[in-house]
Amino acid sequence: MNTYNHNKDSKISYIPIYEIGISTPIINAVKQISNAKFDNYVIDSSAPQFGKLARLDSFVDFQNSIYPPVVLKFIDHQNIFSIIDGRHRIAMSIANNKTHVPAYMYNITLSNLPEFI
Q1: What is the CATH number of domain 13-108?
Q2: Which uninterrupted H or E stretch holds 43?
Q3: What is the C-alpha to C-alpha distance for residues 44 and 30, in angstroms, rounded to an integer?
Q4: If residue 91 lies in a helix (H) or strand (E), which one and from where to where?
């Protein structure tokens, strides 16, 4: 498993990048900084299509720096993971040929929704 550097935590899951829905802005940003191919990636048309991920140049030492895990949620009906937080880290992972990302999973179920009165 090839992932970026992060602090270890028992709550982290390691998700293959090809199972994460990638948005067009992520693809465009990665293409500007690498020759990554997107043949096996899932394009998430419901993902936000805004922004240019302009901060990618601030990830100067991505290979050696420590970054927090991304936050994902699983979309049952699409059988993919959707990005809640971490578009830049996922983009840099793709550009640096990582296979997995460390992730915290965001889960909402009927049993943990707040009560509204």
Answers
A1: 3.90.1530.10
A2: strand 42-43
A3: 16
A4: helix 87-95
**Closest by alpha carbon to 21, among 59, 1, 52, 49?**
49
Query: Where does residue 86 fall: left (phi above 0), alpha (psi -120 to 50 degrees), or beta otherwise?
Result: left
Domains of the chain: which residue ranges?
13-108
Q: In the 8-state DSSP scheme, what is residue 20?
A: B
Q: Is 84 helix (H, G, I), strand (E, B) or coil?
A: strand
Q: Cβ(38)–Cβ(17) under 8 Å? A: no
pLDDT in tens, 34-79: 999 888 899 887 777 777 787 888 888 999 999 999 999 998 878 8
β-partners of residue 71 are 85, 104
Q: What is the pTM of this model?
A: 0.86
